Amino acid sequence: MQGENFTAAHAGPWNEMMEYVFSPLPQFKFPGKVFLNEALGLNGMEVSLGVMKPGTQVPYAHAHKENEELYLFVKGQGQFYVDGQVLDVREGSAVRVAPAGVRCWRNNSTEDLHYIVIQAKAGSLSQYTLTDGIMAVPQFHWPEEK
């Protein structure tokens, strides 16, 4: 669905996320990861949703040339490796990694690990909510529920 100033997509329920497979190179298959860029027409950030099964890990450590990443863990628990340090992550954990940071993560638990990754060019945010937001006039009012 889209309008003049929005696009919306539905990737499906988290428990069906394993149907998606990300394969950056033929030798690497990463089930449970879907990128939303094409579906939403994103042009200032990259967003992906992921589910990692128990006992699995990202098959490679990596860094980036220009983009920082924000990892938001929304369910489950696991471990996140960055620059020689191992961090325990769980529902509610957030990890920001600068472009040069070497990162990898794994699910060392007995339940699925659900996460969201947001990626944007480092240093590109010139304003944030309080300096960029503009109050809409007139204000929107929810229709009465029946």
TrEMBL record:
InterPro entries: Cupin_2, GPI/OXD, RmlC-like_jellyroll, RmlC_Cupin_sf. One of its GO terms (molecular function) is metal ion binding. Residues 51-118 form the Cupin type-2 domain. It comes from the Bacteria. Keywords: Metal-binding. This is Cupin. It comes from Tumebacillus flagellatus. The lineage of its organism: Bacteria, Bacillati, Bacillota, Bacilli, Bacillales.
